[in-house]
Design a protein that fits this description.
The complex is a heterodimer of chains A (641) and B (111). With 641 residues, chain A is mainly α. Helix content of chain A is 73%, strand content 2%. Chain A is built from 26 helices and two strands. Chain A has helices at residues 2-24, 31-59, 86-109, 115-137, 141-159, 166-197, 202-207, 214-231, 240-243, 249-258, 263-270, 272-275, 279-301, 306-326, 330-357, 375-389, 395-410, 412-437, 445-450, 456-471, 486-491, 505-532, 541-547, 552-599, 606-625, 629-639, and strands at 65-73, 76-82. Chain A has a two-stranded antiparallel ribbon. The radius of gyration of chain A is 31 Å and the shape is globular. Chain A starts with a helix and ends with a helix. Chain B is built from three helices and no strands. Chain B has one domain (3-105): Orthogonal Bundle (Helix Hairpins). Chain B has helices at 3-23, 27-59, 67-98. Chain A binds chain B through residues 599, 602-607, 609-611, 614, and chain B through 18, 21-23, 25, 103-104, 106-111.
């Protein structure tokens, strides 16, 4: 217990120290030292996380580890405490492990930045890891919320990292504001919980859940889910994620694919006790996830920016995870978080390697034939594509299959849409692959001349992630394929309300066969269509609709941004000018006017002054003479008790 | 004589003084009116001190009650004489400067 307390404190504090040192010393340290120090801090956390993981695996989870009382008001006590159990241990490994690889990758990718910006970049990355660890380790919703806001801040800072470009700043602001909308829901859920139960600790909330009425539970879970919608980019709050691709590519890999956006999944999985009691909320989660998965996949088909495709793919995969959560397959969702972290980080880093080689060209229409120039990137990217498409025995297959099987048992319609989405996923990923790596090079001769494989600091993380993408699924081999689903057993003490669907093995084989067949067909079609004749021109009809992302941004602009803008200008021009300003200026004018009138009394005529003096004396005498009556009357009037 | 007579006379003198100050513009007349008010008060002081002495002397032949009032009147007269000398000097200076003793002419306190 004591060891655990110390270890966890160090796991969290190392990245924070890294943030402070690199942030304050960015003007003094050399680039090499900055990169080494930042990566080494995360590596230390990673090693400690492995120890924590082994301890948890062998000894099981223990109670909360309290460091001090964070808030203590009356009966409300919110401790600064960590909860380390199987779920948070897995997230610890994902965050620090992939975080470390991405730090190493960034060291080479960001090499062209100036020294001060280089330091700023790595200090933000370390701060992000710190916040993310706080998010998954917190033993109550308040600590989780601190981490939740911290990762939002880092996301904002890193999306707008190249702050000289206005568009990037707009993207950063969009991400921040969209997240704030969700955060409001999260915050309200915390308040609701504290109002009803007087606590926000996970263990207390879950054990006292019987005190809550169904309405309370539904409201809390839906509000929590609104928070998850913002952070995990679900409809209707997803539009920030594609725009967040303005940030450096390793940031997209770390924050907007592997870790931060899965915070919503973590939160719902953590609150599974609450969600299992509210059918409404569960259905909402499942349907939102399903719709988002399909919707984002359709958009991804027609995008031409290599990172935008991956961004929509991330939104779509997050939808999958929420589908899993909604139908009660919590393990499946966490499993998919894990495998998705591997292959999506791999894909993003691969895309980063391509962008690096192409000198910051992101349009896939200007690429093509990169296979022979970037062999390692090509192979690893291909592995990522196969993994996300769900071809066995790559990792994506097992996690996706588990979610789909649960969806089928819950409602075959969910499964149908899920499989259609899986087909679309395979199609757009291999469209991306074929357009980028196959065919002939379509860029300028100058770009062709400079094409080169990335340095080893970038390719080694790619290779490690590729290996993980291949074998990562083996921790969750289902029984029907002769495994015993190690992850499922590992997580079962946390995910208490996991729904166990009884499906026969033959049904499972049929489902797997169907989804693999559909994915394989989509892959073949995509490769055949796009390797020889990639689509260069703009699309028409439905294609145009998809290329413009269903005009959702324009729709939001028309129904939310514009009315809000006109309301704001109405308040500014009418309410403020003729209301508030008029009142303030009116007081000033009144004083001015009345003093101008009073000034006339001072006419310099001594006789006038004496007259006033005499009148004043007469008044005073009258007040006295009246036996104090007027005096008492006035006193009562002004100082009545 | 009843005390009311003195009070009424004094009041009348005082009011004449006030009205004089208010309505007249000749500085010397105003000055005289101020003296009138001062002496109205003096009259009242003397009247009341005499009244108190008359009441107290019945009980005690050797009483000194009321003597303070008489004394005050002397002091006031002395101070008034000093005041008159200063005031008249001011009026003389004023006349030398403006060739007028009209107080409305002196309105530089304005604004």
């Amino acid at each position: 217990m004591e060891i655990m307390k110390t270890l966890l404190a160090f796991i969290v504090l190392w990245p924070l120290v890294g943030f402070l040192v690199n942030g304050l010393g960015r003007n003094y340290f050399s680039k090499k030292r900055i990169a080494f120090y930042a990566s080494e801090q995360i590596f230390a956390s990673f090693i400690a996380s492995i120890i924590v993981f082994i301890l948890i695996k062998n000894n099981g989870a223990q109670g909360d580890i309290t460091y001090f009382n964070f808030i203590h008001i009356g009966k409300l006590i919110i401790p600064f405490a960590f909860k380390i159990d199987q779920l948070s241990a897995i997230f610890l490994l994902i965050i620090t492990g992939i975080g470390f690889l991405i730090h190493v990758y960034s060291a080479a990718y960001m090499q062209q930045e100036e020294q001060a910006h280089y330091g700023r970049y790595f200090s933000y990355l370390n701060l992000f890891i710190f916040s993310m660890l706080l998010l998954v380790l917190g033993a109550n919703y308040v600590i989780m919320f601190i981490g939740w806001e911290g990762v939002g801040l880092c996301s904002y800072l890193l999306i707008g990292f190249w702050f000289k470009n206005d568009n990037y700043n707009y993207a950063a602001k969009k991400a921040f504001i969209m997240n704030r909308i969700g955060d409001l829901g999260f915050l309200l859920a915390i308040f609701w919980m504290i109002a009803k139960l007087g606590t926000a600790n996970y263990s207390d909330v879950f054990s006292n859940v019987s005190q809550l009425s169904t309405t309370d539970i539904t409201a809390i879970t839906i509000l929590l889910f609104i928070g998850a919608m913002g952070k995990s980019a679900q409809i209707p709050l997803y539009t920030w994620l594609p725009d967040a691709m303005a940030g450096p590519t390793p940031v997209s890999a770390l924050i907007h694919a592997a870790t931060m956006v899965t915070a919503g999944i973590y939160m719902v999985a953590r609150s599974n006790v609450l969600y299992s009691l509210s059918e409404v909320a569960q259905n909402l989660v499942a349907i939102t996830g399903l719709v988002t998965a399909l919707f984002a996949a359709t958009i991804a088909i027609k995008q031409n920016d290599i990172k935008k495709v991956l961004a929509y793919s991330t939104v779509s995969q997050l939808g999958y995870m929420f589908l899993g959560l909604g139908v009660g397959a919590y393990t499946g969702a966490v499993f998919h978080v894990m495998t998705h972290a591997f292959f999506k980080a791999l894909l993003f880093l691969g895309a980063g390697s391509v962008i690096h080689a192409m000198h910051h060209e992101q349009d896939i229409r200007k690429m093509g034939g990169l296979k022979k120039y970037l062999p390692i990137t090509h192979i690893t990217f291909l592995i990522g594509c196969i993994a996300i498409s769900g071809i066995p025995p790559f990792s994506g297959f097992f996690s996706k299959d588990e979610i789909l099987a649960a969806a089928y048992a819950h409602n075959p319609v969910y499964w149908g849409i899920g499989v259609a989405t899986a087909g679309l996923t395979a199609f757009y990923m291999f469209r991306l692959y074929a357009t980028t790596f196959l065919g002939s090079f379509r860029g300028t001769p100058e770009q062709a001349h400079h094409l080169h494989e990335s340095p080893s600091a970038m390719t080694i993380p790619l290779i490690i992630l590729a290996i993980l993408s291949v074998v990562g699924g083996l921790v969750g081999v289902p029984e029907s394929l002769g495994g015993h689903h190690a992850l499922h057993q590992f997580l079962s003490p946390v995910l208490l309300t996991e729904v166990k669907y009884e499906t026969t093995h033959s049904t499972e084989y049929m489902l797997m066969g169907l989804s693999v067949a559909i994915a394989a067909t989509a892959i073949v079609i995509a490769i055949v269509t796009y390797s020889k004749k990639p689509q260069i021109s703009n699309s028409t009809g439905v294609g145009k609709l998809l290329e413009n992302k269903w005009y959702i941004d324009e729709l939001y602009d028309a129904i939310i941004v514009k009315p809000l803008g006109s309301l704001a200008s109405f308040l500014k021009n009418v309410i403020e000018k003729s209301g508030i300003d008029a009142a303030v200026n009116g007081v000033g004018k009144l004083v001015n006017y009345s003093s101008r009138q009073l000034r006339l009394l001072q006419n310099g005529q001594v006789g006038g002054y004496i007259l006033l003096m005499v009148l004043g004396m007469i008044v005073i005498v009258l007040i006295w003479v009246n036996d104090g009556y007027i005096y008492r009357f006035l006193m009562n009037l002004f100082f009545a008790k | 004589m009843p005390i009311q007579y003195y009070i009424i006379l004094s009041l009348a003198l005082f009011c004449i003084g006030i009205v004089g100050v208010l309505v007249r513009r000749n500085a010397i007349i105003i000055f005289m009116c101020i003296e009138l008010m001062l002496n109205a008060v003096n009259l009242l002081l003397v009247a009341f001190s005499k009244m108190q002495y008359n009441t107290a002397v019945i009980a005690n032949k050797a009483t000194t009650v009321g003597a303070e009032g008489q004394l005050f009147v002397f002091f006031i007269m002395v101070v008034a004489a000093a005041e008159v000398s200063v005031g008249l000097a001011i009026i003389v200076m004023m006349f030398r400067n403006t060739h007028s003793i009209d107080v409305n002419f002196l309105n530089r306190l304005k604004n």
